[in-house]
Amino acid sequence: MTGGIEARVPVLVLDEGGVGELxxxxxxxxxxxxxxxxxxxxxxxxxxxxxxxxxxxxxxPDAPVARRLDALRSIAASVGDRPPVMMAGDRTLELVSENRxxxxxxxxxxxxxxxxxxxxxxxxxxxxxxxxxxxxVPRTNLAPSLDHVVMMAPTLTYPVFVKPVSKxxxxxxxxxxxxxxxQKGQRVDRAEELVALFTRLQPFGADSAVVQHxxxxxxxxxxxxxxxxxxxxxxxxxxxxxxxxVHPPHRGIGTCVRSEDVPQLVDMxxxxxxRLSYRGFALLQYKRDLASGDFxxxxxxxxxxxxxxxxxxxxxxxxxASYAAMTGQPMPTITQRVGVSWLDLEPxxxxxRTYRKLGESTWLDFAKSVLDVRYPAYLAWDDPRPFARRVxxxxxxxxxxxxxxxxxxxx
Length: 411
Prior knowledge:
Elements: E1 11-15, H1 19-30, E2 35-39, E3 52-57, H2 65-79, E4 85-87, H3 90-98, H4 100-103, H5 114-121, H6 123-133, E5 140-143, H7 146-152, E6 160-164, E7 186-188, H8 191-201, E8 209-213, E9 222-229, E10 235-247, E11 253-259, H9 263-275, E12 280-289, E13 294-301, H10 309-313, H11 318-326, E14 341-343, H12 345-357, H13 363-370, E15 373-376, H14 385-403
Parallel strand pairs: 1-2, 1-4, 2-3, 14-15
Antiparallel strand pairs: 5-8, 6-7, 6-8, 9-10, 9-12, 10-11, 11-14, 12-13
């Protein structure tokens, strides 16, 4: 649904190479909004979407900030008319949010305040703010260092979930394989395991984290509320999704996600956003504690989500609402069709193998869940080239591995 919104200027989508950016591109495409992809991965799947009008190569995340800002300014100036910018990744979100003064004259955005975005990006800040405001969050302890954890570990009730204060601390490439189980966070069942984890993290300067009470409910009790508040404070609408499976299990991101109607969560999210004086798009992540029946707020993301294409396909096109706000147009109607699912097949199969090994699910459960899938992450009937590009890249990588010379063996 476009709601009569005019395509006045292209959107710059800042691409970190994930499926979330592809969903963002497609959501804008559904509203007939032209897209320029600003990407560090010009060979990636999003770059060949039918909805991308032009691809701009962008310096990588480890390039100097000044170089990245200069490139972004140059790209925006080439488009003209202060094009809107949208993100589905934390690193590009932080780049724009923290450098608003350098970008104000060439870009448009509808972000929450700089302070609020920083609070949501850094888990230690969010833990403090949520506690002070009385938000419904799990019990959380700050763990700034290994020394602090050694003293704190015997006093905690287990299991707990450990999250890095910033996702960058645990990202792939920064830490050797085996230091952590997943970039997003890790479940720990005993005090000695907690100390061992922080002992592994300390040599890499990654031992600053939050330790949160682990909500011992199945992964299918994870819910997300996608919501938008207009610049004038009007609550435009919300859409709720439920994670059927996540990868890696118990600590990862949604791989099979279903659109569901949960009015209680919408009301909770509206209250949270009102108390925060939030403006723009937000993704509020919850988990239901089956022991108490309570929904607990895990985090708030201030950018579009990995599975954000699902709400757009179901009538809740939040990127289109964001575009309308930035171009001074009436808000589109936000509705929600329920009972349909989005699936990222490859990681979902990997997750399913683990669930089956743990005795938490069966292949019959998997078969039943995919009956509701209407929107695969990469394969879309109206945009097939990203899937073809992804398959081609996988084939090339496998062929390259087979052709690579075997490592020499010491005599």
